[in-house]
Amino acid sequence: MTLRSILIHPDPRLKKPADPVTAFDAELRGLADDMLETMYDAPGIGLAAPQIGVMRRVLVMDCVKEEGEAPRPMALVNPVIEWSSEARSVYEEGCLSIPEQYAEVERPAEVEVSWSDPDGSPMRQRFEGLWATCVQHEIDHLDGKLFIDYLKPLRRQMITRKMVKLKREMARG
Ligand SMILES: [Zn+2]
């Protein structure tokens, strides 16, 4: 397994829709493993392939937060939201591509998602709570959308300016 570097917003690859996966092979399983390792290392609860510059419809997540509870790594390939609840919920979201910036985002409280696992087996599950927010946030990444796109333009621009500055500092080392 290899740690991949995470792209920081703004980056054109974070604004581009990702391509569907067609080959369920060892390379795909390696990608999912790398993404999980990178996510846990960050640490984060979700990561989408475009965030490491791979323009394919793959996301990983693990929203288990309780100390001592067993981790529950999930890798979703070609995920599709099949159903969203009328009920909505608000979570303070963050993003590994937008470090240290958080904002409340309202989304459907529950979603039903279908996907393939990295071996190509079809899966379908309903998510609620933090898992529902996380899976929607990550699927947005596959469509080139970031959580700051839900914010008012002024707030979004402010965050983007901070990220431009951060990237400049990181480039300087
Ligand atoms: Zn994100």
From TrEMBL:
Enzyme class: hydrolase
Cofactor binding note from Swiss-Prot or TrEMBL: Binds 1 Fe(2+) ion.
Catalytic activity annotation: N-terminal N-formyl-L-methionyl-[peptide] + H2O = N-terminal L-methionyl-[peptide] + formate
Cofactor: Fe(2+)
GO terms assigned for molecular function: metal ion binding; peptide deformylase activity
Pfam families: Pep_deformylase (PF01327)
Entry keyword annotation includes Hydrolase: yes
The EC number(s) this enzyme carries: 3.5.1.88
CDD domains hit by this protein: Pep_deformylase
UniProt: Fe cation binding residues: 95, 137, 141
Lipid metabolism is among the record's keywords: no
Gene Ontology biological process terms, A to Z: translation
Active site: 138
InterPro entries named in the record: Peptide_deformylase, Peptide_deformylase_sf
Entry keywords, A to Z: Hydrolase, Iron, Metal-binding, Protein biosynthesis
Superkingdom to which the source organism belongs: Bacteria
Family: Belongs to the polypeptide deformylase family.
Function as written in the Swiss-Prot or TrEMBL entry: Removes the formyl group from the N-terminal Met of newly synthesized proteins. Requires at least a dipeptide for an efficient rate of reaction. N-terminal L-methionine is a prerequisite for activity but the enzyme has broad specificity at other positions.
Protein's name in the database: Peptide deformylase
Species per Swiss-Prot/TrEMBL record: Profundibacterium mesophilum KAUST100406-0324
Lineage, highest ranks first: Bacteria, Pseudomonadati, Pseudomonadota, Alphaproteobacteria, Rhodobacterales
